[in-house]
Amino acid sequence: MSSRRDFLKKGLAGAAALSAAPLAAEPFIPDVNKRSADDHVTEPKAMKKTNPFQVGMAGYTFVNFDLETTLKTMKSLDVHYLCIKDFHLPLDASDEQIGAFHEKCASYEVTGYGAGPIYMKTEAEVNRGFEYAKRVGVKLIVGVPNYELLPYVDKKVKEYDFHYAIHLHGPDIALYPDATDVWENTKNLDPRIGMCLDIGHDLRNGCDPVADLGKYHTRVFDVHIKDVTDASKEGRGIQIGRGKIDFPAFIRMMRQVNYTGKCSLEYEKDMKDPFLGIAESIGYFKAVSDYA
């Protein structure tokens, strides 16, 4: 495994990109042919032949910023997928607003791949969420429905032919605290109903997100990547690679189960000035993905 310093090279380059230069394309590889006989240089670990993971951004990361700032940041970091939040595109947006949203995203080479999280406490809110996703043109809803609404969500999934990924929230709220809870409540429903595996919240509820991805991967339709300071309710968001998540192990598990959904950063530290942390986190995740 390359050192943390090696992994952070992309992140540091990304931070610079936010103000000046483009992101570095490859991590630095030392020239082992120039070392002396007395040097002890560890041979660099070989890059994986394929890196199939599609890195995106969870819209909530930019709750304090407008769409233009969001898209500029994403383009500077070579990230092309956005899960749409309603503060960037309201649930009651007109067709004209939706068209303008997609046009602006395209100008920054970004695609809105899903919508949410959308909280749903009534059947009317379920209806509104599904109709919103249809008008926006996405086929993935990241939702948080009350438990008693799951049979109705099952009905709407069959009607609309969407995937519905329930966002888990750790110990902070009673609804869907971890991956096991989502699994137990969806395993007998339509197979298009599953989870957005928020690995930070899963860990904060005392679970192992690596093992949970392995157990429940057939129902994992979206992943929120983040790191946290502790595997408990007291754990808080931190730059990826500085916390308790074992990212090399998680990436190896994604390869093992052939995960093909998005890996979207939901960055929750310094949310009024998150840009350096976002760049470090994206860079670290991309670099580890190349080698794990």
Give structural notes.
The chain is α/β, with parallel strands linked by helices and 292 residues long. The protein has helices at 4-17, 67-76, 95-107, 123-136, 150-160, 179-186, 199-204, 209-216, 247-257, 275-291; strands spanning 54-58, 81-84, 111-120, 140-145, 163-167, 193-198, 220-225, 227-228, 237-238, 262-265. The strands form 2 sheets. It has an 8-stranded parallel barrel, surrounded by 6 helices. It is globular, with a radius of gyration of 20 Å. The protein starts with a helix and ends with a helix. Residues 1-5 and 7-42 have low confidence and may be disordered.
Q: In DSSP terms, counting alpha (H) and pi (I) runs of 4 or more, how many helices? A: 10
Radius of gyration: 20 Å
> Main beta sheet, described?
8 strands, parallel, barrel
Q: What order do the SSEs take from the amino end to the carboxyl end, as H and E?
A: HEHEHEHEHEHEHHEEEHEH
Low-confidence stretches: 1-5, 7-42
Structural class: alpha/beta
- How are the strands ordered across the major sheet? 1-2-3-4-5-6-7-10
Terminal CA distance: 8 Å
Report the sheet-strand fraction: 15-25%
Shape, principal axes of CA atoms: globular
Helix percent band: 25-40%
On the 0-100 scale, what is the average pLDDT? Answer: 88
DSSP, total strands = 10
What does the secondary structure layout of this molecule look like, with pairings?
Layout: H1 4-17, E1 54-58, H2 67-76, E2 81-84, H3 95-107, E3 111-120, H4 123-136, E4 140-145, H5 150-160, E5 163-167, H6 179-186, E6 193-198, H7 199-204, H8 209-216, E7 220-225, E8 227-228, E9 237-238, H9 247-257, E10 262-265, H10 275-291
Parallel strand pairs: 1-2, 1-10, 2-3, 3-4, 4-5, 5-6, 6-7, 7-10
Antiparallel strand pairs: 8-9
Helix pairs in contact: 1-10, 4-5, 8-9, 9-10
